[in-house]
């Protein structure tokens, strides 16, 4: 321990620097009911680590001090990235990396088999990105509710599934509370990881168990929804609003664990290594591949990287220590500048936006709808709370195009790209298709296009664009959730204050133009194209008026 004291000191200091972001990340986890088990996970990790340490024997080998130093340098880099974008997600990964390095340093003092598996549990705290997590939870909720609806039908209970609601005799039961509460797909993945740790399963086996956790969670959620629906339909009793919800929670975990243990037994039977005979060479290559797959453990790879203490693996490296110390000083100064802006400017989310007195407020009468077949019905002005998802201010134009009602609106201000479909999803709309639109007539100013639907069958068609306070077009957020989405979030425009454009009020005050069409049936392509053209003319007028007003 004395030989790698620098790793201990520097590692602990990096954890202290990560404190503010980790606090934000854990607060977000606690705010999501399907992650409220994380304190129990932390307790398990700490308890198992102490138990392993108390039973460990002195180590004769350990990790290289060079590897530990380079690993810590990589974690410092991740810490800098976390504060540059002010994201607790990256900070959590960095913190887990630092804890892994400290655990590796401990393993050079006492041998603790299984410590790597215990440490790996911490990655359960790294939640999926918002959009991916939401889509995953919605996918399994939708699948569970559809199957459960068939079961409820068989019981003779009349019901309707509307978005995230199960409606029985006018009474609404939130499916999100049933499927994505304390018991969810996420919590079942956590349970299966703890079970795999207890049973000391190899990597391939664990991967199969995690896949099974998704299937088991779906089956259990089907039973939960069906039980809640049938009980309310027959007795008028909502189990989710009574003490029986805890009984159902315990039963859900018990049933889920039994199902996972059954899957584990099945996999253990089929994933046995195959014995080979020395004299028989046919098929030995395939057998070796199979045995390597079913028996692969990351801990074995890490064991091969350890070096005997006598070889100088823990020898002091003054140059590396100096580089780490200097990097830590630079990181501290960088973090201080970020926190100064975060904590020293009141409401950070709105401070670097123009206030009401300085907003570019246009006259809605200046916007004309001159294309043939269009009729303006009325114009309305709306004002909401500053924290409203729809924006504080709106101008709303209600139009008619060949008996199709069309709403166009200018909403403002926003401090970043505003995903308008999130607002509509709060009203029960479900996204059916989405993409980016950039026709030549749009002058290289992209728009997001979304088609949505309600459980009643109603159809929604949405177009959305943004410009900043100076009237400069803002390109839309990608919708593919692939590599272009990653590049969007890594763009310098996403840097936090005082870096990038984060303190420029002109570039941080966004105005949103949108069109929303609600119809009983999906629109035909000619109608959608006409709406696109009219929207293109509308948003260009709004952008030009904003540019003119901001220059006055």
Automatic annotation (TrEMBL):
InterPro entries: Exo/Archaeosortase_dom (IPR026392), Exosortase (IPR019127). Its main location: membrane. One of its GO terms (cellular component) is plasma membrane. Keywords: Cell membrane, Hydrolase, Membrane, Protease, Transmembrane, Transmembrane helix. It is a multi-pass membrane protein. Signal peptide: none annotated. It is found in: Cell membrane. GO terms for molecular function: peptidase activity. One of its GO terms (biological process) is proteolysis. The chain crosses the membrane at residues 33-53, 65-83, 89-107, 114-132, 181-198, 205-232, 244-271, 319-343. NCBIfam families: exo_archaeo, exosort_XrtU_C. This is Methanolan biosynthesis EpsI domain-containing protein. It comes from Rubritalea profundi.
């Amino acid at each position: 321990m004395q030989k790698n004291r620098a790793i201990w000191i520097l590692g602990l200091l990096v954890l202290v620097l990560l404190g503010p972001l980790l606090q934000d990340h854990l607060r977000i986890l606690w705010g999501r009911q399907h992650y409220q088990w994380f304190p129990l996970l932390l307790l398990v990790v700490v308890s198992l680590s102490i138990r392993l340490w108390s039973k460990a024997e002195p180590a004769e080998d350990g990790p290289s001090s060079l590897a530990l130093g380079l690993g810590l340098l990589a974690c410092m880099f991740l810490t800098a990235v976390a504060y540059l974008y002010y994201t607790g997600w990256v900070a959590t990964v960095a913190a887990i990396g630092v804890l892994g390095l400290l655990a590796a340093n401990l393993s050079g003092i006492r041998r603790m088999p299984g410590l790597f598996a215990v440490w790996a549990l911490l990655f359960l705290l790294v939640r999926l990105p918002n959009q991916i997590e939401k889509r995953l939870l919605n996918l399994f909720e939708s699948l569970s509710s559809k199957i459960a609806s068939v079961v409820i039908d068989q019981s003779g209970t009349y019901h309707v599934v509307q978005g995230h609601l199960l409606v029985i005799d006018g009474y609404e039961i939130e499916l999100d509370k049933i499927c994505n509460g304390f018991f969810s797909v996420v919590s079942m993945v956590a349970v299966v990881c703890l079970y795999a740790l207890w049973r000391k399963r190899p990597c391939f086996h664990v991967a199969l168990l995690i896949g099974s956790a998704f299937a088991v969670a779906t089956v259990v959620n089907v039973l939960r929804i069906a039980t809640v629906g049938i009980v309310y339909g027959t007795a008028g009793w909502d189990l989710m609003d009574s003490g029986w919800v805890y009984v159902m929670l315990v039963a859900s975990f018990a049933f889920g664990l039994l199902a996972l243990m059954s899957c584990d037994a099945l996999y253990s039977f089929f994933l046995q290594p195959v014995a080979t005979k020395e004299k028989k060479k046919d098929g030995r290559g395939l057998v070796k591949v199979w045995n390597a797959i079913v028996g692969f453990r990351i801990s074995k790879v890490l064991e091969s990287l350890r070096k005997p203490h006598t070889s100088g693996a823990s020898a002091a490296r003054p140059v590396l220590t100096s580089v780490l110390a200097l990097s830590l000083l630079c990181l501290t100064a960088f973090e201080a500048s970020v926190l100064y802006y975060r904590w020293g400017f009141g409401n950070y989310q709105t401070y670097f936006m123009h206030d009401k007195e300085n907003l570019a407020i246009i006259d809605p009468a200046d916007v004309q709808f001159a294309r043939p077949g269009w009729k303006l019905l009325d114009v309305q002005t709306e004002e909401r709370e500053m924290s409203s998802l729809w924006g504080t201010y709106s101008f709303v134009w209600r139009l008619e195009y060949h008996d199709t009602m069309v709403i166009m609106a200018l909403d403002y201000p926003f401090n970043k790209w505003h995903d308008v479909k999130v607002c509509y999803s709060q009203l029960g709309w479900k996204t059916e298709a989405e993409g980016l639109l950039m026709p030549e007539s749009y002058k290289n100013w992209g728009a997001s296009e979304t088609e949505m639907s309600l459980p009643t069958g109603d159809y929604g068609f949405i177009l959305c664009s943004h410009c900043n306070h100076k009237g400069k077009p803002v390109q839309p957020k990608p919708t593919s959730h692939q590599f272009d989405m990653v590049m969007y979030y890594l763009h310098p425009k996403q840097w936090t204050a005082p870096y990038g454009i984060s303190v420029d009020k002109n570039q941080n005050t966004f105005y949103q133009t949108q069109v929303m069409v609600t119809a009983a049936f999906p629109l035909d392509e000619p109608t959608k194209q006409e709406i696109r053209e009219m929207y293109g003319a509308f948003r260009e007028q709004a952008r030009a008026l904003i540019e003119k007003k901001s220059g006055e």
